[in-house]
Specification:
The protein is of the alpha/beta class and 88 residues long. The chain has three helices and three strands, in the order βαβαβα. Strand 2, helix 2 and strand 3 (65-68) form a beta-alpha-beta unit. The longest helix is centred in the first third of the chain and has 12 residues, at 23-34. The chain starts with 11 loop residues before the first strand and ends in a 7-residue tail after the last helix.
């Protein structure tokens, strides 16, 4: 966005998760993001080596982008480098 521009900014949010222990917090975080005055263009939930958690996110939020991790220390690197999974 250029200085002085009145255009509405767009942004994405990456939420990293790896355990069911924090499901309620994850669900509330996503619902909070969806309820903001200025909503993200996309919410990317990265499930770090937990296919069951990814399936639950898919069921609860069917229109979002979910990214399973494919390497070690996955969620951190995917959030850091985007959908390349940390291969920089």
């Amino acid at each position: 966005m250029r200085p002085g521009s009145r255009a509405t900014p767009t942004f994405s949010v990456v939420v990293c998760a790896y355990t069911f222990d924090r499901w309620d917090a994850l669900r509330l975080a996503i619902e909070s993001l969806l309820g903001q005055t200025l909503t993200p263009r996309e919410i990317i939930v990265v499930s770090d080596h937990n296919p069951r958690l990814l399936a639950r996110v898919r069921a609860a939020f069917p229109t979002g982008h979910r990214a399973p991790e494919r390497g070690p220390a996955g969620a951190f690197r995917r959030a850091q480098y985007g959908d390349r999974g940390g291969n920089r």
